[in-house]
Amino acid sequence: MGTPHLVGLLTVALDTRTEPWMIKVVAQEHSMGRPDAVVVYVASTAAFGDIVECARGRVLNLQGPPLTEILAPGVSWAQEPGDGCSFGESRCSLMAVILQRTTNTDDETFLGTASEEFLAAGLDPAAPHLRRRAHG
Asked: Which Pfam families does UniProt cross-reference here (predicted)?
C-alpha cells in the first residue's frame, strides 16, 4: 500500500479543507492488512471524493470494516456514534446482544432479532453505518 505515501497524499488533500480532520494509522506493519488500517476522520462527507482518489490502487484490503458503507474498493465510511464510544465498540456491543438472543436459532430468527435490536437502539438496520436517530 505504501502507507507513508498514502498518508502524505491524504494530508495534502485534506489540508486544503476548512473542516477538521484526523488520520489514524496502525502502528505495526503486520496490521496493515486490517480493514481499518488507515482511518480518516472528517467532519462532513465533502472530503469523500478526495479520500477515494488518494486511496485508489493503494489499499491492500478491499473489504471495509463490517457494517460500514462502501464508497469504493477498500474505502468505506461510518458516522461515529457521538456517545463517547467508537463505531466499532458501538456495533460490537449491539451484535453481542443480538448473538446472545439468537444462540441456536435459524437465519430468519437472527435477522429478525437483529432488525429489532437495531431499531430499539435508534439505528436503521438498512443503514448501520449511520449514527442513532435523534429522539423526540
From this structure: HopA1
